[in-house]
Design a protein that fits this description.
The complex is a heterodimer of chains A (about 325) and B (about 450). By secondary structure, chain A is α/β, with parallel strands linked by helices. Helices cover about 35% and strands about 20% of the residues of chain A. Chain A starts with a strand and ends in a 5-residue tail after the last helix. Chain B contains 10 helices and 18 strands. Classes of the chains: A alpha/beta (about 325), B alpha+beta (about 450).
Chain lengths: ~325, ~450
């Protein structure tokens, strides 16, 4: 087991999957000669050649469509969108074709395709380049959407995505690329649709994913000093959503807070809160609270940008409110 | 006296099924109390009371289908409770109500002193002359706990936002009620280690057996609060990863020791049971093995500061585990007296929560029923439970000679998250040797 970065885990996984299966190929803008905007694909063109690492023109809808066609014919494309914001140009291919072909053609064809793309704010990339659009894709039946929060999950979820016979979006968060963590050696295959519980606790459950998991774990460690035992659920997969795991957690703790990087309205937190209400109503001692990004286009100004994204202070404040509302510790 | 009618709970509902009565004849009823669960054509809904009083009659048995607007219960001042209740077929006999305001669709009780109802007024749920039911803010969890304890939420003061009743408020009320004479039917609050060993109704009395139902028909016995909580707690402990260790105690000296003490101190009123000796011996061994005197804390192990040994007691209505606190610091005589007192009050349903909470180890003894050995289910969050079988004569070879001895089998179920096999075995070894040298129990 080695400690490597999230970026390195993604790179290593792509490389080992390409070595394992010659049908796996990469396609996207600047992934070959330039070695990727975030250098995930560094060295892969040299190793595997231009047939398997395809640089494309700036034409998201076109190369997404090419990948779908290739997948229908038996290849296993891994598409890289430079950022999730550019995936909007390929929305029709993703939502109307990749997601539906299996069902609409009576199962005659599957789309074993992966879409990798980074998103999230905090990098001073301004409103059109800082979005968390995961809910747009998590909403669509026929797509699977995963959002690893740490290097080990980046490896095991990307591996599972590449080997999955259905289209899977692997959502990476820009702020996570340089974060490090222990990654087990050898083949690691996560089961898509299962949440993880990186920290167990009894008093309150924080349900989150991706960047939020790091925040939640730090906040939970702080609260532990005051004798508050917080359980953290890492959704890992936004579709399918592992409702059972977080409902079980809430049944244990009776208090729930959702932390999400997307906008509040109609967000992942709304889905989670509704699911908790359906699955653990009689166990709730307070309403499920949500901590999310401000409902504005993300500002370019650094202080404003940071103020509009959820952080540990925002999460702590809401946790305190929930604890107070249920007389915790009194 | 007020009739409770089958309400119209949906636009398309024509009749409903009383799927469950949640209150019984003689219960005090407050506005907002849930009297029954009603199955409509779409869903199951709560039937709330809109009147204060005493529930005098239930006119419909559970499972019976009733047209809307027919009488299903009567609330009064309590003088009518003697009337026969819940005979099948009663409801249809109570003819549709004559007054327009009491027509199907209205759950409004006729107001005793108010103005006459407006003819044809399609009153939804509550007539204009009757007080609207006061909204009690309560968390779903608080509501569930109150339901389990048959507590009236209207009588509890909420301390949450806007006066919302939260779990802590209900738990306070439960403790208050059980501290005084309270609700005799109620057993421990949820979360209390009331339910221990499923396979371990131990100590004292044999569970009462009910006669066979007559005529070969099945009879359904609804659960009381204790049984329900016990079942929940046992299901919880099914998730605990456990293993079992068995040791055989050579009990000759233990039994002789007990007989001698009981004989010598009979005049002083001392009478020790094997369980009393086991409590004290376990407490001594637990002191030597604090790793066994521990609890599973979710993300941590809690090493407990005191040695509090629970004894599983079978009740006619379930199971309860009274706790001998600081058993390692009490004499066997004190333990015996306390165990007797606790078991008696347990059977009367008069234990205070403090008396069955906070145990650190549980003993379940089925020896008196002739059970040789068995495994018990852990009483979470404790790390281990000891199942004790009966003393049986068995053949043993000593110094090449065949002889006999009394043997007691001890089987300890262990939470593997807290303890490993070796530490459990070390504890059991020491416990065995204490029991085999009984003087160590008392010094």
């Amino acid at each position: 087991m080695a400690e490597i970065s999230y970026r390195q885990a993604l790179h290593d996984t792509l490389r080992s999957e390409m070595q394992r299966d010659e049908n796996v190929f990469l396609i996207g803008e600047e992934i070959g000669i330039f070695e990727g905007s975030y250098k995930i694909t560094a060295g892969l063109l040299a190793e595997f050649g231009p047939m398997r690492v395809r640089d494309t023109p700036i034409a998201e809808e076109g190369f997404a469509g090419v990948a779908i066609g290739a997948a229908m014919l038996g290849l296993r494309p891994v598409v890289e969108f430079m950022t999730i914001n550019f995936s909007l140009l390929a929305l029709d291919q993703i939502v109307n074709h990749a997601a539906k072909i299996h069902a609409m053609f009576g199962g005659q064809s599957s789309i074993p395709m992966v879409i990798r793309t980074p998103g999230g704010g905090g990098q001073q990339l301004a409103a059109t380049h800082s979005q968390n659009l995961e809910v747009w894709y998590a909403h669509v039946p026929g797509l699977k959407v995963v959002a690893p929060s740490n290097p080990a999950d980046a490896k095991s979820l990307l591996t599972a995505a590449i080997r999955d016979d259905d289209p899977v979006l692997v959502l990476e968060n820009l702020s996570l690329y340089n974060t490090k963590g222990e990654v087990p050696d050898g083949e690691q295959l996560a089961e898509i649709g299962t949440a993880a519980v990186p920290r167990e606790g009894n008093d309150l459950t924080v349900i989150t994913y991706s960047r939020g998991v790091r925040i939640a774990l730090e906040v939970a460690a702080e609260f532990a000093k005051d004798g508050v035992s917080i359980e953290v659920v890492d959704l890992r997969s936004l579709r399918p959503l592992d409702r059972r795991t977080f409902c079980e957690s809430v049944r244990k703790t009776s208090r729930a807070v959702v932390l999400e990087d997307d906008w509040l309205s109609y967000g992942i937190g709304a889905e989670v809160a509704a699911s908790v209400q359906e699955g653990a109503f009689d166990y709730l001692d307070a309403p499920v609270r949500r901590v999310a990004a401000a409902e504005i286009p993300l500002p370019y100004s650094k202080p404003l940008e940071l103020a509009s994204l959820p952080d540990g202070a925002a999460l702590s404040k809401v946790i305190r409110e929930v604890l107070d509302a249920t007389r915790f510790g009194r | 006296m007020t009739d409770v009618m089958m309400p119209r709970l949906s636009d398309t509902m024509e009749e409903g099924v009383v799927s469950r009565w949640l209150m019984k004849v003689g219960d005090r009823v407050h506005k907002g109390d849930v009297l029954a669960e009603i199955d409509t054509d779409k869903t199951t809904m709560d039937l709330e009371a809109y009147e204060e009083g005493v529930l005098e009659q239930l006119l419909v048995p559970e499972g019976e289908t009733v047209k809307i607007g027919l009488r299903i219960a009567v609330i009064g001042d309590g003088s009518g409770t003697a009337a026969p209740a819940a005979e099948p077929g009663t409801a249809p006999a109570a003819e549709p109500r004559p007054s327009p305001a009491e027509a199907p669709g209205s759950l409004a009780p006729p107001a005793p002193a108010g103005p006459p109802p407006v003819p044809g007024a399609g009153v939804p749920r509550s007539g204009p002359e009757s007080e609207p039911p006061e909204r009690v803010l309560r968390s779903p969890l608080a509501r569930r706990i109150a339901r389990e304890h048959h507590l009236d939420l209207a009588a509890i003061k909420g301390t949450g936002p806007g006066g919302r009743i939260v779990r802590a408020d209900v738990e306070d009320a439960v403790h208050a009620a059980e501290g005084t004479e309270g609700h005799p039917a109620e057993q421990p609050p949820s979360g209390a280690p009331a339910a221990a060993a499923a396979s371990a109704p131990a100590a004292v009395t044999a569970p009462a057996t009910a006669p066979m139902p007559a005529g070969g028909t099945d009879v359904e016995l609804p659960l009381n609060a204790n049984q329900r909580i016990t079942a929940e707690r046992l299901s919880e402990s099914a998730a605990v990863p456990t293993f079992c260790l068995t040791a055989v105690v050579d009990a000759d000296r233990l039994l002789a020791f007990r007989a001698e003490i009981n004989q010598r101190l009979a005049g002083a009123g001392v009478k020790l049971s094997v369980t009393d000796l086991l409590v004290r011996a376990s407490a001594v061994a637990l002191r030597l093995h604090p790793e066994v005197n521990s609890s599973w804390g979710g993300n941590k192990i809690i090493r407990r500061g005191g040695v509090h040994v629970g004894i599983a007691v079978a009740l006619e209505t379930g199971l309860i585990v009274p706790v001998i606190r600081d058993a390692d610091r009490k004499s066997v005589g004190q333990i015996a007296a306390e165990a007797k007192e606790l078991a008696t009050r347990a059977r009367e349903g008069k234990l205070a929560p403090a008396e069955f909470k906070g145990g650190t180890f549980t003993i379940s003894n089925l020896g008196m029923f002739g059970i040789d050995n068995f495994t018990a289910i852990i009483n979470p969050p404790e790390a281990a439970i000891l199942a004790v079988g009966s003393a049986v004569q068995e053949a043993v070879v000593r110094d090449g000679q065949l002889g006999t001895r009394s043997a007691i089998k001890l089987t300890m179920t262990v939470d593997h998250r807290v303890l490993n096999g070796a530490s459990g075995a070390a504890f059991l070894r020491d416990l065995t040797s204490i029991l085999e040298e009984p003087l160590r129990i008392v010094v």
